[in-house]
Design a protein that fits this description.
The chain has a domain of 103 residues: Sandwich (Immunoglobulin-like), CATH 2.60.40.790. Helix content is 18%, strand content 35%. The protein contains 2 helices and 7 strands. Strands 1-2-7-6 form a 4-stranded antiparallel beta sheet, with no helix packed on it. The radius of gyration is 31 Å and the shape is flat.
Length: 170
């Protein structure tokens, strides 16, 4: 036993009793800090198992939707690549349009000494709020090259109610 182990230290001292304890504390602190840095860095990355699969392989598929409005209609377009009309369900009420669907994908590769099959399934739902005055009876939907376009005409009486207000500067 070394003499410094027998020497009494001041109360409240945070210094370790031995040099090896001091070194271990520093290494543990460094390891903790490195773990924190790496966890923060990789947390923002979406690491997919294979690059060729789309985002829905991880279960978070949500189609991109664009909504535009003219004086006479509202047009909603949704990007649904690789999907068929039969996999999509549209529901319309007076103030919302709901697009639901299920996307399925199966990928198979064979090699001389290996065989890989990967399947992914994902359901999605997007609900789009609509302005008042949509004529639900005259709504139309069309699917072309993976883009769903829903045209929602406005009622003629709603179009007539709208007017432009002039802004005057002082």
């Amino acid at each position: 036993m070394a003499i410094r182990d027998l020497v009494r230290r001041k109360t409240g001292s945070t210094a370790p009793a031995r040099k090896s304890d001091w070194f271990e504390d520093r290494i543990t602190s460094l390891q903790r800090e490195m773990n924190r840095l790496f966890d923060g860095f990789f947390r923002s990355w979406e690491l997919a198992p294979f690059d060729q699969f789309e985002r829905f392989a991880l279960g978070d598929f949500a189609p991109r939707v664009n909504v535009s409005e003219t004086e006479k209609e509202v047009i909603v377009s949704a990007e649904l690549p690789g999907m068929d009309e039969k996999d999509i369900n549209l529901e319309l009420d007076e103030n919302t349009l709901t697009i639901r669907g299920e996307k399925r994908s199966e990928h198979e590769e064979k090699g001389r000494h290996w065989h890989r099959v990967e399947s992914s399934y994902g359901t999605f739902q997007r609900t789009i709020p609509l302005p008042a005055g949509i004529d639900t009876e005259k709504a139309k939907a069309q699917m072309k090259k993976g883009v769903l376009t829903v045209t929602l005409p406005k009622r003629p009486e709603e179009v007539a109610k709208r007017r432009t207000i002039e802004i005057k500067a002082e």
